[in-house]
Give the backbone structure.
Amino acid sequence: MNHNTLLLKGICMSMYLFVVSFTLHAQTPHSEDHSDIEALKQANNPLASIKTANVHNYYIPSLYGAPDVTLNQAWLRYAQPIGQFIVRASLPFVTSSPADEGPTSGLGDLNAFVIYKFKMKSEGMEVGIGPALTFPTATNDLGSGKWQVGLSAIAFFKSSPIIQIGSLLTWQMSVAGDSDRSDINQLTPQLFFMWQLGGGTYLRSTGIWTFDLENGTYNVPIGLGIGRVIKSGGKMFNIFMEPQYSVYSYGVGQPKLQVFIGFNTQFH
């Protein structure tokens, strides 16, 4: 599968998601009561006390130092509240496509964290912290080959009906695994910003910054995308597309541009 085919598939998938999203948008009244506003604020909250199942995809058409390689990462993610804890597991399916070779596809490394959500005096702020783990489940050398442990911390501010901001900070280091593979010591801050436009439509920026403390490489993408939240009964559907461009990067293999699209479902 060549680069143009992958790009065409990514564009087609994005167009399909947004045709479905805005068709439903056109059929949904824009009047929002208090419960609707609260639901919209929770739609992108990683600390929301509700079950969440997500399908995400990163299409990466260009890498620094490897211009003939494209990557695609499809993520399956599930989060489950248990009392004051949030348990989240994420599994990627990776496709690497060098220009002069056939694509290599397989599973990536399984990542999970358990966050304890603190009881806050302010209802407009939520904070949590807990351990993070990565398991070397990857096939075809598409992962790190290392067992990793670390910490995750999340803060989410939702006092405004228009703007919600937050951050997910994760640090992990390798503790065991394939001795022939590089050790891992990585810090990944993610800043997320949501601007509600009304009627469930919102602007978003959620780039994940990566700092490889072992090798001194880094990548800082900034995104600007659009999403649509649809409430149906006891479920909340969230469809979005967000191009992200790296504004600060060092190291071979760092993404120049990536297109992030996703479909999130929150349910009881």
The longest helix spans residues 3-26. The chain is about 10% helix and 60% strand. Helices lie at 3-26, 34-42.
